[in-house]
Structure formats: C-alpha cells, structure tokens
Amino acid sequence: VKSTWRTRHSRPQPPSKVNKKKSSLCSQEEDSPPLPLLPSPSVSPSKLEDTASSEEELTSLLERLKKKNKFPFSTSSPVTIKEPPVSVHPVKAPPTTGSKLLVQTPKNTKTPGKSTVHRPMVSQTEPRHGPSSRIALCKTPGCFLESLSNPHSTYVHNFKKTREELTSKLYRLYNTSVFDSKLPIDMSVTWNKKMRKTAGYCITGQERGGGSRYARIELSEKVCDSADRLRDTLIHEMCHAATWLINGVRDGHGNFWKLYARKSTLVHPELPMVTRCHSYDIKYKFQYQCTRCQNTIGRHSKSLDTQRFACGLCTGQLVLLTPSKPRAAAPFANFIKENYGTTRQELAGQSHAEVMRKLSADFASKTKLGQS
Fold this sequence. Notes:
Layout: H1 5-9, H2 17-27, H3 45-68, H4 154-157, H5 163-177, E1 188-192, E2 200-206, E3 213-220, H6 227-245, H7 255-267, E4 286-290, E5 296-299, E6 318-320, H8 331-346, H9 352-371
Parallel strand pairs: 1-3
Antiparallel strand pairs: 2-3, 4-5, 4-6
C-alpha cells in the first residue's frame, strides 16, 4: 500500500449523520414491529431485504415522531387531518420507497372521496354586528341638546326671543357635565352686533399684580342666528375659557383645547365634532353681483358704494341684487322731527340728552292719552 504525507497526517473524519441515524434505527428495529411486505415478482431477494430494512427504519422513525406529536406522518393512504395548523417549519425526511409525507389540506379544498368540512374563520379585526345607529344616546340627565335640531322646538321656533334664556341654560349644562363646575357661574356671555364673520370670541386676561384670571365670551348676532349654531359655538368658546381658567394655559387650539373638545363629544354624543373653525353659511341681507364674472358679494347693510368699489376678481361693475324697500318712518321719529326745534328753544342751554328725555316723556304721555 502506497503511503503519502497527506494520508499519514490527515485527521480521521467523524462518522456522518446518516450513519448515526442508521445505527440508532437499527438499534430500535427489535422494538418496532415490522410491516408486512407485498411480494413483487420483479424484485430480487437482495433488493427485498434492502427495502424491508429501509421500511422498518422509516416506520420506527415515524413512530417516534408521532409520540412527540410533531408531524402527522402515516404510511397508509392519505387521510384529511383535522388538527389545527401549527406554525412549525416542516422537516423533510429522506425519500424512501413505500413512504408518503402528508401535508395538511387547505380548509376550502376538497379531498377525493371525503366530504368537505368548512370551519368558521374568526378574526380579531372582523367587525361585529352592532346596532345600526353609530350615535350613542346621551346619558347626561336633563340634556336637551338633541331637541335644538328639531324645527318644532320652542327654542328653535322663537330663537330671537329665547336667545338669552337658552344661552344661560346651555352654559350651566356644559359647566356641570363637561367642565365639572370648575368654570365661574357668573361668567360674562354677551352678544355682539359688530362681529360679521366670526361666530364667537373668548377674551382671557389676568388682573394687575398677578391677580385672579378671568374670561368672557362674545357671540355674534349675525352668525349665530339659530339654536343649533349657538349650541355648537358656545361649547367651542367654553373650551378656550377652560384652558385658561382651569389649566392656566393660553394655547389656542392646542392640546388642552383638544382635550376638552374631545371630552365634550364623549359626554354629549349628539354634538357634532368640535372643530377649530366654523363652516356656517352666513345669511347676508344684501347681495351684490358683478356684471362681468357673476361673482356675488354679501353685506349685512347697504354700505357698499358701487360707484367707488368694483369686483375684486375682474374689476367689473357691481349691482345690488336685493334692493331695500323704503320703510315708513316710526311714529317717535316723526314726533321728534316735528317738536325738536320748539323743545330745544324751551330748554335753551341744556344738553341734547336733556332735550331727548323731554321729547320721550312728551311722546309717552301723548301715546297714553291716545290709547285711553
């Protein structure tokens, strides 16, 4: 035998894993019963012995795997497995004759010769069938916010007459339910005639010398012209007042304001989402239209001089669409016009206020005599 330097100094190779498996399988051949083999006329006796030994080895391996409950192997015909799927990577066994690896059939596929069994699929994100209406009912006792959207309500039908009463009632409701009665009871909430586009405004401040903080709310008469607009605007401005009076923060529409706005919609689900700016369609008494581009401009009074101002888009001429009807003079105005000169001479040296008081007293006495 020829000897070389490589053969003398090379390390002996460890036995392969396949040989280890074969040795372990051979040791357990006596424990596992052999499967009966079908005689085949085309296979020689030596090949039959090899096939029988390989089948015995595979059978013992499958029996051990079944005991560990890892994979559903079987040497018989394919059977539909009803076990739940397990997220384990399958181990590929060496291909041998007479053995088949069963793969779990999908739930919606049909197995030949077997009836298809459909399992219900349940997902955590699957929407559940709930009530048809997504608006929850308000649980606040004495809440009447939903009725303010009903045109047959008393506050809606007679809004101009009941505006002050509705404002105070809404303030008390919001203060107790949303702000836990932390806002002052006598906070000033007034109506402003000059606010033409802004629905409401909250004025915050602090007294001199580090005194107490205060806040007051002003509402627009021209924009908040309905009960539902008053309902939605007042809670918006009260959220501004709460951020300053309760938290001592002036952050505009910041985190504290968003916190109170979110809380108001949770306490009163019938309220619309409290947003930063309103989207009300302001009703203007007078409408001007451009003769060139047909652009319309709204005004609360007939204060736009069409001879001096033109359209801002195309510089066309503006025309008044809804001309005002001439109104008859009031009786008191006619009385002042007739008697102001004589009364002024009688009260020579007096102020204009004194003359007007004298005229109003004379007009009141005259009307009382006329009614009697």
